Amino acid sequence: MSNDLIYKFIKPEKSLADFVYGYSLLQNLSTFKEGIIIPNGKIDLLFCKTTDNAFQIVLMGLETKPKQMPEHKFSSFFAISFNPLALEYILHQTIAEFVDSGKELPDNFWDFCIDDLNDFEKFCEKASKKISELLPEKIDERKKKLFEVIFAAHGEISVKDLSEQIFWNERQINRYFNKQLGISLKYYCKILRFQASLHHIKDGNLFPQLNFTDQSHFIKEIKKLSGVSPKELFKNQNDRFLQFLVYHTL
Question: Looking at the chain, which terminus has fewer C-beta neighbours within 10 angstroms, N or C?
């Protein structure tokens, strides 16, 4: 059996798209020694198998800066990547208290068990069914529109413009972000713009393609969120940036 890192990604069905970004699989993780985790603006629920065949479920907070992948005992995991709207309406909790970290959940959360990690497609079906059962009858249309607008703009929108578009005042928007995510809307938008820049960098475009003030500002922002310059990110020495490697498969 190959020791190469195995990655798969499946988009959710349309009815779940406001809440779920996608489902992913990572196997042979213990062979990936020098990985760097970079912010992506998603909330990951990880279903992990350890090298000694134990089962663990972890809800991750938002990453706001690059960090070295910890030396852990996980050999593989399946993940549900949620959009922020899911915190209030599907998961019914905030992640403000564990920014740049995570929270272990009961190992029978949503009736999952280690055997569910044997078949990725069946895992996705089970997760989709559970999330569909939890879909709310009604959601605040302002919040739905809020994320539609900032995702469509790749974060390139001011709080003022956003407030005017969705008819929700700036103070309430910022309070909502800090309460649910533990970061400001402005910083969350920086993460979205950073993510939108990745495929340009992967294609060798090392100058800003999005709305950065100038080249210096572009380099500073990329370095703040990845830990390296756009040039170093493009080289991706030792395949350290996993999200960067798989970006074009999403």
Answer: N
